[in-house]
């Protein structure tokens, strides 16, 4: 096998402050689709006596002219090779001017300056995080170099009527030959990864906004003309999150304009460029006819996420990319708080924890495991991971929980006060939070440095003579690549005790002054610790890790009855769900060959009772009725057989459906169907969520009847949520009505790429061996293209990452197909290829037949010539 990791990694411990910084940069950009010329004047800051020679990053730039302090440089004054421009004789105050040419239309990587859409109608835009700016001009492309940006754009007025860049507008005008110009000045020094420009034919909607501290701001959302009507929801969401940040964190917006632009061609969800956010259209456009309820919530969440970056990321940025979670984990946390406030706290928590378990836990348990703050990397784009984002957010949540609401706000205030305008580290963050509360938070740094999900073991013992309950907690983290030894972490465990009738008991923790209350947090910070509760009159049932107070795997020998008690009585919606998930796991582990275990029976009985009671919120009930996903079940096994897991999970659901019974399911389905208008209110959304779940259970019992209902629901649906739910039931259970519905959907949404993505995805998710042929047929659909990341993900991402029983065939054909497409995709867009390749994570734990097929496909891929550093890194790490 060829050695793929040839380059040396970049290490956190090698960090050095920059020798040269840039005070100001003036850009003049002459835009053209095939050729764009970028003139840059940077004013340098540094001391040549102490410094290394000036070195600037620049990738694949055609250097046209270069001068230093007004003097054109000769060949011996500079050197440009291997992505670095080295210039001799620069001194503090020197101005370096370069003129380069780049080729936007030829750029398929969607990094740097590129074209979105067609040559005739598309528009130009940039993506610079993490290291895209070096594809536009020469610059110290590192986040700890903050400069004031002045940008002048020039272009043909007819082809590019709209010219946008970050910062405040500072004039515009006409030039000769039908060209025009527009100038922007950003008063806030920023790292170059936050630079952005957009140019083309775009429409906008706008609104005036007055900040709490009295600034008049224009909020403007831009998109291509045919979708501008679908931007209103995002504009409302933007206003909501701006108000929320003022109220919750005292943070105001700081420019006169805030632009947001939608594009269909984007590698990630969205980007927080200063004053000019750029969004994947998937997270900006929303309308009832083509967006589901989940997608509405995602738009609100991503709009908020990017806006919140203005303070957590932009005003206070990262010293280096190892600190990525400083902005991402914190911003995800702020978004989660916001979304919970706008919608429902327990539902949001359930959604986020389920996401963590589905994406981050497997990452942390396999060859790609890395700390929230990695110690080294090769390709930074591969580190925009669930660990950095979702686990990073969980760490902030733990710390925020430790400080309490007011304490956390005090800490955040101090963090902004100390580090506004700076490039900070995770230590700075923890110090500010700790100092503001006179608490030493350094023990939490270990969470940032250590990979792997800790296992928290809990064992309770009741002493009836002494009326004492002793809870013994212990922790253990398995080795991860490069980290064989693990240290104990501080694990906050929020808990309550229930008596057998489901009532919470007052807590009297031994050796603790605080006597009152039925819920409290205890912190395990040693390998093992005992906690004694006094005056406990009968053996209690502990409700542990309430609200998911730490990102760990809880191991506790609950009996089925105990879990059923919590599922029925816990007042906290999240914990109720959690008890149900644990019980379903137990049922899964103990049910074999149609023999119902006690756990399976307890799970079905408890849920059937809750189903008939009708006192629970519809959306919560829908979540309770959903067992853990196939990926979560697989995560607990050592010889994974995805087909078997799929079948077992299906049979678990079948038991549940039987226990509730056809007539009750039907009656509830009919009741929920009376609310036929696609309204966004929580109650309507909740009904649709439950209706979908009921239909999914019904189809397990009486397929013909359920298919008829689904077909009818598809035809009469007034919004996408109901339409897609019906389509998905028809397609996944192979209904005779499926093909007509699919044909109808294909035609109806032929001109709506985001809706069409769902059409691809629904089919790529058909379980079992049937999926492969479907995927192969779909890649020949004229609407399919590897060039568009959303479309590539809608088919291959859905198949490889969300359809385990379809992808993991015993004959290895799923692996072979994806390996082949990865190589093709890599030639176009390495970032997207590398991300898709993570679908192979976990292959070592497959049963032997699939395991050797996966190895074969991966090794074949690793041996190919000319793989990008991005894809090589993932493939070689996964193979370890
Ligand atoms: N910083 C973006 C976000 O999380 C994500 C992103 C990373 C977008 C890299 C593009 C490129 O909000
Ligand atoms: Zn972010």
Overall shape: it is globular
By secondary-structure content and strand pairing, the structural class works out as alpha+beta
Number of E strands: 31
In the predicted model, the low-confidence regions spanning at least 5 consecutive residues are none
Q: Give me the Rg, rounded.
A: 28 Å
Mean pLDDT level: 97
CA(first)-CA(last) distance:
12 Å
Distinct compounds present: phenylalanine, zinc ion
The side-by-side strand order for the widest beta sheet comes to: 6-5-9-3-2-12-15-14
- Report the major sheet: 8 strands, mixed
Assembly category: single chain
Strand content: 15-25%
Share in helix: 40-55%
Q: How many H/I helical runs?
A: 26
Domain Peptidase M1 membrane alanine aminopeptidase: 233-440
Domain Peptidase M1 alanyl aminopeptidase C-terminal: 561-879
Keywords: Aminopeptidase, Hydrolase, Metal-binding, Metalloprotease, Protease, Transferase, Zinc
InterPro entries: Aminopeptidase_N-like_N (IPR045357), Aminopeptidase_N-like_N_sf (IPR042097), PepN_Ig-like_sf (IPR038438), Peptidase_M1 (IPR001930), Peptidase_M1_dom (IPR014782), Peptidase_M1_pepN (IPR012779), Peptidase_M1_pepN_C (IPR024601), Peptidase_M1_pepN_C_sf (IPR037144)
């Amino acid at each position: 096998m060829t050695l793929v990791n040839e380059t040396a990694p970049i290490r956190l411990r090698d960090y050095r402050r920059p020798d040269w910084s840039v005070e100001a940069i003036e850009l003049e950009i002459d835009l053209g689709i095939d050729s764009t010329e970028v003139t840059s004047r940077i004013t340098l800051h540094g001391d040549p006596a102490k410094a290394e020679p000036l070195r600037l990053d620049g990738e694949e730039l055609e250097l046209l002219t270069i001068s230093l302090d007004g003097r054109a440089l000769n060949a011996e004054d500079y050197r440009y090779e291997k992505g670095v421009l080295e210039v001799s004789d620069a001194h503090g105050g020197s101005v370096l001017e370069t003129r380069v040419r780049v080729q936007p239309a030829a750029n398929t990587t969607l990094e740097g300056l590129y074209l979105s859409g067609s040559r005739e109608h598309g528009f130009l835009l940039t993506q610079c995080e993490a290291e895209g700016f070096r594809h536009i001009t020469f610059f110290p492309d590192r986040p700890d170099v903050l400069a004031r940006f002045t940008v002048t754009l020039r272009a043909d007025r007819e082809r590019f009527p709209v010219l946008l860049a970050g910062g405040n507008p500072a004039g515009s005008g006409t030039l000769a030959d039908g060209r025009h110009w527009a100038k922007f000045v950003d008063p806030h020094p920023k790292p170059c990864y936050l630079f952005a420009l957009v140019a083309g034919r775009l429409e906008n909607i706008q609104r005036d906004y007055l900040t709490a501290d009295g600034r008049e701001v224009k909020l403007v959302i831009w998109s291509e003309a045919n979708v501008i009507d679908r931007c209103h929801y995002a504009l409302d969401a933007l206003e909501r999150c701006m108000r929320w940040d003022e109220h919750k964190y005292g943070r105001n917006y700081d420019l006169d304009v805030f632009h947001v632009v939608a594009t269909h061609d984007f590698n990630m969800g969205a980007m927080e460029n200063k004053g000019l956010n750029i969004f994947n259209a998937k997270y900006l456009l929303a309308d009832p006819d083509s967006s589901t309820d989940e997608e509405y919530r995602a738009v609100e969440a991503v709009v908020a996420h990017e806006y919140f970056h203005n303070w957590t990321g932009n005003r206070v940025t990262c010293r280096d990319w190892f600190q990525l979670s400083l902005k991402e984990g914190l911003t995800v946390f702020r978004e989660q708080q916001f979304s919970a406030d706008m919608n429902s706290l327990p539902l949001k928590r359930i959604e986020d924890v389920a996401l963590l378990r589905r994406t981050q836990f497997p990452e942390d348990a396999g060859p790609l495991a890395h700390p929230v703050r990695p110690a080294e990397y090769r390709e930074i784009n591969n580190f925009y991971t669930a660990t950095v984002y979702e686990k990073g957010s969980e760490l902030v949540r733990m710390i925020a929980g430790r400080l309490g609401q007011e304490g956390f706000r005090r800490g955040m205030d101090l963090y902004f006060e100390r580090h506004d305008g700076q490039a900070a580290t995770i230590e700075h963050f923890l110090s500010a939070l700790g100092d503001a509360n006179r608490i030493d938070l350094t023990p939490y740094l270990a969470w940032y440095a250590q990979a792997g999900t800790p296992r928290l073991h809990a064992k309770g013992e009741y002493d009836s003579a002494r009326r004492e309950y002793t809870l013994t907690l212990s922790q253990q983290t398995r080795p991860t690549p490069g980290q064989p030894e693990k240290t104990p972490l501080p694990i906050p465990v929020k808990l309550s005790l229930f008596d057998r009738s489901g009532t919470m008991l007052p807590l009297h923790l031994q050796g603790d002054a605080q006597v009152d209350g039925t819920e409290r947090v205890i912190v395990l910070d040693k390998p093992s610790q005992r906690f004694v509760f006094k005056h406990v009159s009968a053996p209690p049932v502990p409700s542990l890790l309430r609200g998911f107070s730490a990102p760990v795997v809880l191991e506790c020998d609950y009996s089925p009855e105990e879990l059923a008690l919590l599922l029925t009585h816990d007042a906290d919606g999240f914990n109720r769900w959690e008890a149900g998930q644990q019980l379903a796991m137990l049922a899964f582990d103990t049910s074999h060959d149609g023999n119902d275990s006690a756990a399976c029976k307890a799970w079905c009985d408890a849920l059937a009772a809750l189903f008939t009671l009708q006192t629970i919120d519809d959306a919560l009930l829908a979540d309770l009725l959903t067992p853990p996903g196939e990926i979560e079940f697989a995560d607990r096994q050592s010889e994974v057989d995805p087909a078997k897991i799929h079948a077992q999970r299906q049979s678990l659901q079948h038991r549940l459906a039987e226990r509730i019974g056809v007539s009750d399911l039907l009656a509830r389905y009919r009741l929920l169907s009376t609310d036929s208008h696609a309204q966004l209110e929580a109650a309507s959304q909740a009904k649709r969520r439950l209706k979908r779940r009921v239909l999914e259970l019904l189809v397990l019992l009486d397929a013909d009847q359920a298919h008829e209902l689904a077909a009818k629901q598809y035809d009469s649906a007034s919004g996408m949520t109901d339409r897609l739910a019906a389509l998905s039931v028809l397609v996944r259970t192979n209904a005779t009505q499926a093909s007509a519905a699919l044909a109808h959907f294909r035609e109806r949404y032929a001109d709506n790429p985001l809706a069409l993505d769902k059409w691809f995805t629904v089919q790529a998710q058909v379980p079992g061996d049937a999926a492969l042929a479907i995927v192969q047929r779909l890649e020949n659909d004229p609407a399919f293209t590897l060039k568009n990341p959303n479309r590539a993900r809608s088919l291959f991402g859905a198949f490889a990452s969300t359809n385990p029983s379809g992808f993991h065939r015993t004959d290895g054909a799923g692996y072979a197909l994806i390996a082949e497409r990865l190589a093709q995709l890599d030639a176009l867009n390495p970032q997207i290829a590398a991300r898709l390749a993570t679908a192979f994570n976990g292959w070592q734990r497959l049963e032997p037949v699939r395991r050797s097929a996966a190895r074969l496909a991966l090794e074949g891929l690793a041996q190919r010539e000319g793989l990008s550093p991005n894809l090589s890194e993932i493939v070689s790490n996964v193979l370890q």
